[in-house]
Design brief:
This protein is α/β, with parallel strands linked by helices and 292 residues long. The protein contains 9 helices and 9 strands.
Length: 292
Amino acid sequence: MGPGKPSTGRKSLGEAPREAGQRIEGSGFKSLVDLHSHILAGLDDGSDSPEHSLRMARAASSGGVSDIVATPHFDLDTVSVTPASIAAAVEELNRALHSEGLRVRVHAGAEVRMSAALTRPEDLPWPLRELTVGGKGDYLLVDLPSSEYLLPSDEAFFRLQLAGVNPVLAHPERNRLAEDDFRKLASLRDRGIALQVNAGSLLGSYGSKVKRIAWKILEEGLALLVASDAHHPGNGSLDLAAVGRSIAARLGEETALLLLRDNPRSVLEGGALQQPEGFSGKGGYRRSGRRR
């Protein structure tokens, strides 16, 4: 399947448009997709037990989430986990969720730390698609260290795109890049790099500076995805419906649903991302060519 056409406007969500800041009555924040979660027990610094994983799933479900992408930290230079271990943990957790009667489904993914190894995706120990969201080969969640924009990053993003994979950059608001050179974020957006803001950043979990930057990223139309990046059951960002109401109060409910439901589901299903209405940037996120 070849690349799709860039999206130029927001698809209809079947609701009357609302003005930003308008009070939301009878919120429609259901069937949300959390693209970034450390819900798998014992694979990284996230959940440390199966019970904690279940508690995280319950909290997410109560917050309107129907699908969670498990994204344990994945360092290509040290390799402490493998795609096979992630898949096995996902299968085990889904069995437990089914036994508990929770209507939440977990999907395999990874939060891959930026590395020079990503400039040579064909040389990875596993097929690249095994690290992508849902193993579909369309979108890959990539993490940068908070202190710097690593030199291999631009080349790595380019090589991933050549391989037919759309990079998703996790929580850019926590990277020094957003503080020092906001134009770089716009450049990444224009190159087709999908930016994912953390719900916790919008809530102030990482301090007032990160909160301010996160909201600016959304208000300028740079990010098309919001996710929890939850690490433990007490993480307030698991309640994505509450986060959605905060976004709706500033940017309107349709934009909030786009960031938390429609675009994340498109990532999960390998579809094209939509831009908020009125967005005037050059970019659009192409639909990747799937590699078979």
